[in-house]
């Protein structure tokens, strides 16, 4: 079974809590729109968001970790994210997952992930090599044909033991303690150095939402959209990823 872990930023750290909540509601609807019922979702947050959507496969874990003091400092937000991912992964063991996937709280994912994992329970895991990137309100969506996992945090599906969870997890440490859970682009190579190979997911697995106003990090290069990778945002893509306009 696949367990998704969604770390949600706090109201205090948000530029707009209303916007964060809207993005999160679309994200969790997307995650729960799986073709297989064999999945669970763990949301780790400081405060539970007020949304209308409910699903029996969702568990909310509220935490009181020290919160970032200044939104200008990226590492403060990323450390908070790392703590929450680690907490979610620890909690995930209660659902006996074969695999887990961390999902950024503003992205959308393919509805085919849980079924794919169900059919491949013994795999080390996968990185999402091909996906989409999208800017809110655009009539086009852009294909990222390679190295999607290097730009988007919703990208690694790992066999549970390959999360390398510490024997005694700590939640009051600095940025370096959580780097494995934060630096998503490096996970594939870190495991390769341990002679553990994870595969490329054989289909587009996620949509990276850009310039939401609440991203922890993005730069101008990520907003450069080539017309050669552009395609009309059709209903088929919307249905597979649960993408709707906010």
TrEMBL record:
- Record the organism: Anabaena subtropica FACHB-260
Give the protein name, as stated in the record. Glycosyltransferase family 2 protein
Superkingdom of origin: Bacteria
The record, for InterPro entries, names: Nucleotide-diphossugar_trans
